[in-house]
Prior knowledge:
The structure is a single chain. The protein is an alpha/beta fold. 55% of the residues lie in helices and 14% in strands. Strands 3-2-1-4-5-6-7-8 form an eight-stranded mixed sheet, with helices on both faces. Helix 1 (12-23) links the parallel strand 1 and strand 2. Helix 7 (165-173) packs across helix 12 (248-268). The two termini are 39 Å apart. The model has no long low-confidence stretch (mean pLDDT 96).
Amino acid sequence: xxxxxxxxxxxxxxxxxMGGILKNEILLPEDVIASDLYQPGLERTKEELGIAVxxxxxxxxxxxxxxxxxxxxxxxxxxxxxxxxxxxxxxxIVTIAPGQTLEHLQExxxxxxxxxxTMPNTPALVGxxxxxxxxxxxxxxxxxxxICKIFSGFGKAEVLSEKLMDVVVSVSGSSPAYVFLFIEAxxxxxxxxxxxxxxAYKFAAQAVYGSAKMVLETGKHPGELKDMVCSPGGTTIEAxxxxxxxxxxxxxxxxxxxxxxxxxxxxxK
Length: 269
Ligand SMILES: NC(=O)C1=CN([C@@H]2O[C@H](COP(=O)(O)OP(=O)(O)OC[C@H]3O[C@@H](n4cnc5c(N)ncnc54)[C@H](O)[C@@H]3O)[C@@H](O)[C@H]2O)C=CC1
Ligand SMILES: O=C(O)[C@@H]1CCC=N1
């Protein structure tokens, strides 16, 4: 029998995960419950997904064997304080917040609790997410596999060492935002050169999608794939020259280092 899955906080990330889990039939709507402080949002989620909803966080813990804490990192301490007494030994608490280490979470609970720390991303909504996963010593390998199965319902899930979790924030948790900026910028340029807006998004997004697929499916180095596009004396190498001149790669690297820094700082709060 499948375990019931609960979400405390039914915002963007929780809805992306629930959408992926239900669409791919990993769980049925009756096996999912979510709580939030914001009642109108909850009612919409109930209508859209057919799941049970409540404004009582403790009810989620009482009804679900696996509970995902899907509030902002700054609300973790308050939510844990609210639910810690009703969390039982056999339950699994899944976290999705940057910076919140297993050690810190354990301290907040103040008692032994099975915790799986993860970092998903919003492409979960369309079944193309990727999630980094690690666990504390109370979680068995079988339980970890079960959590990975749930996360695989909306993309890929990979177990890794906790010290890499801040990197996962920058390379996949936050990175859809940089990719959307990139797509928007490409579309703006296409519009500037006369293409209708909707068509520009389609062409830019499909080019990003196809390029990502080439990296994943050919196994070729991204540099080699880039070289395949650059004809001698052609259009692409000229665009590459300008991107290098404007510090494109360095901007991405610096932005991601800033992202990791904030993830580490969030863990100290
Ligand atoms: N949005 C993203 O792309 C990603 C977000 N995350 C993490 O997911 C978590 C949630 O982020 P988002 O969904 O983006 O935020 P959000 O603001 O969209 O959702 C958070 C929800 O929690 C609710 N909430 C606040 N306090 C609450 C409480 N005491 N009890 C119950 N519900 C409460 C809010 O009303 C809101 O609906 C954060 O920890 C974030 O770092 C992780 C990976 C990607
Ligand atoms: O911006 C944030 O803090 C969260 C974590 C990863 C994506 N969104």
